[in-house]
């Protein structure tokens, strides 16, 4: 018999509503009875699924056999070194290494052969050595000083995302006495190589303070550089790619603020780019706009320091502006608009190097990259008074900006920035694809382009901007005779309750799911339907070796791009958050029903899959339409959302109010969240529910283990067939180490295949 959690009713009353919670006692993490219950849940789950052990082993072996276990990443150049990571067969974690640059003019990465010794290799950090003796290991910081002599790294051995920061002398391979426990990830060296900046967290585990440490001094002497008291705001900090500025970004879910400081004055005072205004988000990137360039395409000569600013004030999908760097006496405005707002194009990011600007944007539910050149005459083009389409071909040089691009290379008088810039879009021609142009270090003259799709293993190309020629440098190997032509992908559209069209991405193996002349499977296929739908996160096409084990057995993998994500622009996100959150769940149910109605599947052969906020999605969809699914897989699921959002002492709660609403102080938000929170809406009789598997981690600080533990207890008490698997030494991301990860994937895939009737 499965473990039965004791019913110990506690009540909470808010806004005149009293809710009785019988399983809240499971929150007592240090209580031996709670630990014993969780271990009993694990034992029951493993016993219940013991018959799947051969299938789990087969899937693990398949993943392993398709993976190049001994491999090397594509090296990236920084200063006088080529940096890369490599893996070795039998080892859980990567090894980080480098070798010296032999030709200072060589910027094209060299593909290293797996297993072959790398001449002059220097191992910087072997994660396998650092992880020895620990059940969990995560690397949160990895930064090399500009002179190449020191390594800054931080490790977490519990899964609670609290890192110990260390500095290693790379000439000796030994760590210095400098050590700081309890830091957030993302520490970095100042360009002077003398100072280190790191962040610490408050009681809610929110990064809120930035500290400056001088190498070789006591931690007691560290200086607090910045403190963010508003509990809604998280802090991030780093160095601009140009190495000219230190930057701080403060952001809530709806508002942001940036601060800047000259990097050659690390002990100076940061100054605000533009003070925060509620509901206004912006980000900045330092760039140098050339005053003159060489006809030969040499690096631009001289230039004007500017900030490229992406903001959404009166521009729902954001616009790109260029502004002067703020001086000590004041702050900069948004500056001149260079890519105006477009209701059909969501601008997402901008990167700058000495020669290029790369704009990242989204159109038609696909993420895209566009390039603008700074290093050749006519490379910076624009046309006043026209709407900038990031997908358009470059326009002819506009007369009004020609003074900035003097072909003789001689300095020219300053000229106003054009009203719009044109970016040349990079595309590979597939219906569903992910393309990302990589801007490396500041002075790097070439661009690298990453490319993948549901049927194309990840690849990196050297991209000649002048000709558009692409040279493949490295592609993730897939062993065992993988042929991309044996697989297919496509886009479907479901219609939501309110008439909104919701995109669905599909991928399958052609000979396992045969389509008729009408483009529909000749017989309904088993479907794994994944979803997320929160934080404006977009689910872009990606290749997965582990997924092949499902496709080979005839499963169709589908992604429901529901509202709350970012696939269709800011309006798509706003349509699935706060008081519109229910759209996320009804969109997902609409996608499941569409696939069944269109002949792709049947309800009993559809498994819902989602993790974290996606766990809330599938949990809510289960309550809305239990008849639409044959099974539900919920990873670290946010299924007790209302309880968490009522407790401001919990990690993340206050910062999350801008995403979900504040039920503690707002009765309408309380009632709305209670109407969809999965835990509160489990019916008294759930015996008609499909099978449920929830997975979680004991040290998860983002979605605490207690949420799925309570949910499973309540589901099972109501008669639903629910299982819980908990990792006792892991965090929100699950287990660490690639083999342990494959084992976890094999466990979940075996369960999915059994639910779909494919476990034989």
Automatic annotation (TrEMBL):
SUPFAM superfamilies the record matches: alpha/beta-Hydrolases, Peptidase/esterase 'gauge' domain
InterPro entries the UniProt entry points to: AB_hydrolase_fold (IPR029058), Pept_S9A_N (IPR023302), Peptidase_S9_cat (IPR001375), Peptidase_S9A (IPR002470), Serine_Peptidase_S9A (IPR051543)
Source organism, top-level taxon: Bacteria
Pfam families reported for this sequence: Peptidase_S9, Peptidase_S9_N
UniProt keywords, alphabetically: Hydrolase, Protease, Serine protease
Residue ranges of every copy of the Peptidase S9A N-terminal domain listed in the record: 3-475
Domain Peptidase S9 prolyl oligopeptidase catalytic: 543-757
Family note: Belongs to the peptidase S9A family.
Family annotation (PANTHER family): PROLYL ENDOPEPTIDASE-LIKE, PROTEASE FAMILY S9A OLIGOPEPTIDASE
Name the record gives this protein: S9 family peptidase
């Amino acid at each position: 018999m499965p473990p039965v959690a004791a019913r110990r009713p506690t009540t909470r009353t808010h806004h005149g509503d009293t809710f009785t919670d019988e399983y809240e006692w499971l929150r007592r993490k240090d209580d031996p009875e709670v630990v014993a219950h969780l271990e009993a849940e694990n034992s029951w789950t493993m016993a219940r699924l013991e018959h799947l052990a051969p299938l789990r082993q087969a899937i693990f072996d398949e993943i392993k056999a398709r993976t190049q276990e001994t491999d090397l990443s594509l090296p990236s150049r920084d200063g006088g070194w080529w940096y890369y990571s490599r893996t070795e067969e039998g080892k859980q974690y990567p090894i980080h290494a480098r070798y010296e640059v032999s030709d200072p003019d060589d910027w094209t990465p060299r593909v290293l052969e797996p297993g072959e010794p790398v001449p002059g290799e220097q191992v910087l950090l072997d994660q396998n050595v650092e992880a020895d003796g620990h059940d969990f290991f995560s690397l949160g910081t990895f930064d090399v000083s500009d002179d190449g002599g020191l390594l800054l790294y931080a490790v977490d051995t519990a899964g609670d995302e609290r890192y110990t920061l260390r500095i290693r002398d790379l000439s000796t391979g030994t760590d210095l006495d400098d050590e700081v426990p309890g830091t957030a990830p993302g520490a970095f060296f100042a360009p002077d190589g003398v100072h280190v900046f790191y962040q610490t967290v408050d009681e809610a585990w929110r990064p809120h303070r930035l500290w400056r440490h001088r190498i070789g001094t006591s931690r007691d002497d560290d200086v607090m550089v910045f403190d963010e008291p508003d509990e809604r705001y998280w802090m991030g900090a780093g160095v601009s790619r140009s190495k000219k500025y230190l930057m701080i970004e403060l952001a809530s879910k709806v508002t942001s603020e940036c601060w800047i400081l000259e990097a050659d004055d690390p002990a100076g005072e940061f100054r605000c780019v533009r003070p925060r205004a509620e509901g206004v988000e912006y980000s900045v990137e330092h760039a140098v706009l050339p005053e003159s360039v060489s006809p030969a395409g040499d690096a631009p000569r001289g230039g004007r320091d500017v900030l490229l600013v992406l903001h959404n004030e009166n521009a729902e999908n954001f616009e790109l502006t260029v502004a002067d760097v703020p001086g000590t006496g004041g702050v900069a405005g948004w500056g001149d608009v260079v890519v105006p707002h477009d209701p059909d194009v969501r601008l997402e990011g901008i990167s700058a190097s000495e020669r290029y600007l790369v704009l990242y944007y989204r159109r038609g539910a696909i993420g895209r990259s566009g390039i603008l050149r700074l290093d050749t005459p006519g490379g910076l083009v624009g046309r006043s008074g026209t709407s900038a389409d990031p997908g358009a071909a470059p326009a002819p040089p506009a007369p009004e900006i020609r003074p900035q691009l003097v072909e003789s290379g001689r300095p020219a008088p300053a000229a106003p920035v054009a009203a719009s810039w044109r970016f040349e879009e990079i595309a590979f021609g597939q219906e569903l694809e992910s393309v990302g142009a990589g801007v490396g270090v500041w002075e790097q003259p070439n661009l690298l382009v990453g490319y993948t799709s549901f049927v194309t293993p990840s690849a990196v190309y050297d991209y000649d901007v002048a000709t558009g020629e692409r040279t493949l440098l490295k592609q993730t190997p897939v062993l065992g005779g993988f042929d991309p032509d044996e697989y297919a992908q496509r886009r479907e559209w479901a219609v939501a309750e309110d008439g909104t069209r919701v995109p669905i991405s599909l991928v399958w193996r052609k000979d396992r799911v045969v389509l008729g002349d009408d483009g529909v499977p000749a017989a309904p296929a088993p479907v794994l339907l994944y979803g997320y739908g929160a934080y404006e996160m977009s689910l872009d096409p990606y290749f997965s070796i582990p997924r092949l084990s499902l496709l080979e057995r005839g499963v169709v993998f589908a992604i429901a791009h529901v509202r709350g994500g970012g696939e269709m622009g800011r309006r798509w996100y706003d349509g699935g958050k706060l008081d519109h959150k229910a759209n996320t769940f009804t969109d997902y149910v609409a996608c499941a029903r569409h696939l069944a109605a269109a002949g792709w599947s049947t309800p009993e052969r559809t498994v819902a899959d989602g993790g974290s906020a996606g766990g809330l999605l599938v949990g809510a969809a289960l309550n809305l339409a239990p008849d639409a699914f044959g099974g539900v897989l919920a990873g670290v699921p946010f299924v007790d959302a209302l309880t968490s959002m009522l407790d401001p002492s919990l990690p993340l709660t206050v910062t999350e109010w801008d995403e979900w609403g504040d039920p503690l102080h707002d009765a309408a938000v309380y009632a709305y969240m209670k109407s969809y929170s999965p835990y509160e809406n489990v019916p008294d009789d759930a015996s008609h529910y499909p099978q449920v598997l929830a997975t979680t981690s004991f040290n998860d600080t983002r979605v605490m283990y207690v949420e799925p533990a309570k949910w499973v207890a309540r589901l099972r008490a109501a008669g639903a067939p629910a299982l819980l698997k908990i990792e006792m030494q892991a965090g929100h991301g699950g287990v660490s180490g690639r083999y342990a990860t494959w084992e976890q994937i094999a466990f979940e895939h075996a369960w999915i295949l059994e639910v779909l009737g494919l476990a034989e």
